[in-house]
Amino acid sequence: MRVTLTDIRKHFGSVKANDGISLTLEPARIYGLLGENGAGKSTLMKILSGYHQSDSGRIELDGEHHHFTSPAQALAAGVGMIYQDPLDVPTMRVIDNYLLGRDSKLRLDYEQASQELHIIASELGFEFDLRSYIDTLSLGERQQLELLRLLSLGAEVFILDEPTTGISAEQKEALFASIRSLVKDSSKTVILVSHKLAEIQELCDEVLVLRRGKLVGKADIPCTTEELVRVMFEEVPPRSERVSHVSETKLLEIGDLVIETERLTIRDINLTIQAGEIFGLAGLEGSGQRLLLQSCAGLLHPRQGEILLEGRDIARWFYHRVKDAGVAYLPAGRLEEGLVAGLSITEHLALADPRKSFMVDWRFFTEKAQERIDQYQIVGRPETYVDALSGGNQQRALFALLRSPLKLLLLEHPTRGLDVRSAHWIWQLLFEQVAQGASILFMSADLDELIERSDRIAAFSGGVMSRVVLAEKTTAEELGYMIGGEE
Ligand SMILES: Nc1ncnc2c1ncn2[C@@H]1O[C@H](COP(=O)(O)OP(=O)(O)OP(=O)(O)O)[C@@H](O)[C@H]1O
Ligand SMILES: [Mg+2]
How far is CA 412 from its chain centroid? Predict the structure, then answer.
């Protein structure tokens, strides 16, 4: 299916998210859509997939003019999208989510749907318990389920908005292989929105680059990373050497920790983290690393064992007490756990304020919000609702809410959805914290990020923690083995 977009415009208030974008996408090709945070990528794709309506402009599919007023209409015309933050229904089960959006027969055929889901899931190497509820799945698993749903609904044009943030290297290979075969065997058109330049180079035939709502460049792949970065930013961000700040003082001592949840048990975790240390956790989604972070944050109480923070056992403290002790937790689910949709940046700062008072001093918090917006370079205003921020700007807002000084930062995918320049910048901020003596325990799906940013790394596999390796001595290959459970 050939997709032609002509002079697409969309504004939100004073923001011109799409400012006259025209492009043509040919069938049987894979396109990469690149651009810094807030460039307008998601907005353009949401217009093509019927989620947003453009202010003006034309959408043509195989020469036929369409005006979509809902994602269901776009899907019926053959355009399906996986959103950056999955639009599933957390309170429903996997199988019910899978069945969403199908033609509504009076009786749903669960038997057939289950078989179907099993077959396409296993083709991609994904595994689901069909009876479990969406809110027990990781973000990566939710994206996987959305992908399977679109495949089953038979879309001709697939839009994937950062689909690989929560999946492993192996699953990514499987996903890419299936995308390639979709394109080759059945001439689908695929658009991949991603900040991971290596992925774009690996999968795409051509890239399109947006900047501030406009199409500013195109390039055929193969093309070097430097070239891609230059088209995106007009300059190549500097690479800085990292200085290690690991000190002699022990900050966190985890002893014989056992955590039990319905889905997974992790046992016998023993780990000591020094003040000023950055410790990276690798592993497939749902292998236990998130449970470890959550138990250190006081969100999950272990069954056994101790978590000593500067010698005090915090393992059974509640979240707020742990937080008051100088521990911060940054979740991956930005709009479910980290931020509150429907509240502004000012309101978030008021909510996060540790001082309790009966009246809220809105002037104070509005000024503070403006300060943080400037400091964290958030594209938005104090009164902007967090759900109206672009993905990368939501991530910045999460960082802007952190208190200081901090002793321990627990981070889940800290640079998920950030463009190369912003990711670099966030790590500079984190390094400043570390230089002041804070420690960081973080999980990431990006092996390069783990190796480049950590002092030491361990991997989780099926609830078991591997040996600990020095980041400067390890390789992506070695981590790959550790993630697979091989020593
Ligand atoms: N629903 C909305 N209401 C108000 N403003 C919005 C809304 N959606 C997007 N915007 C604004 O439009 C601009 C473009 O956002 P968009 O989400 O398309 O960026 P993006 O290129 O996908 O960025 P990212 O890489 O961070 O995901 C941003 O400035 C954003 O704040
Ligand atoms: Mg986006």
Answer: 9
Closest ligand to C-alpha of residue 391 is 1
Q: How far is the CA of 335 from the centre of ligand 2 (A)?
A: 14
What are the beta bridge partners of residue 442? 280, 411
Query: pLDDT, tens digit, for every residue of 276-318?
Result: 999 999 988 788 999 999 999 999 999 999 999 999 999 999 9
pTM of the model: 0.77
Instruction: List C-alpha distances in Å: 385 to 47, 83, 379, 382, 482.
Output: 20, 19, 12, 8, 41
- Burial letters 237-246, b for 16+ CB under 10 A, else e: eeeeebeebb
With residue 345 as reference, give the H or E element that holds it.
helix 345-352
Domain with CATH 3.40.50.300 in the chain: 3-233, 250-483
Phi (first) and psi of residue 282, to 5 degrees: -100, 170
- What are the pLDDT digits (tens) for 343-396? 999 999 999 888 878 889 999 999 999 999 999 989 899 999 999 998 889 989
Q: Which DSSP helix (H) or strand (E) runs through 328? A: strand 327-330
Query: How many whole angstroms from 174 Cα to the centroid of ligand 2?
Result: 24
- Residue of 276, 286, 218 lying closest to 246 (CA atoms): 276
How would you classify the pairing of strands 408-412 and 327-330?
A: parallel
- Residues by chain with Cβ below 5 Å of ion ligand 2: 42, 84, 391
Q: Which fold has domain 250-483?
A: Rossmann fold (3.40.50)
CATH architecture of 3-233: 3-Layer(aba) Sandwich (3.40)
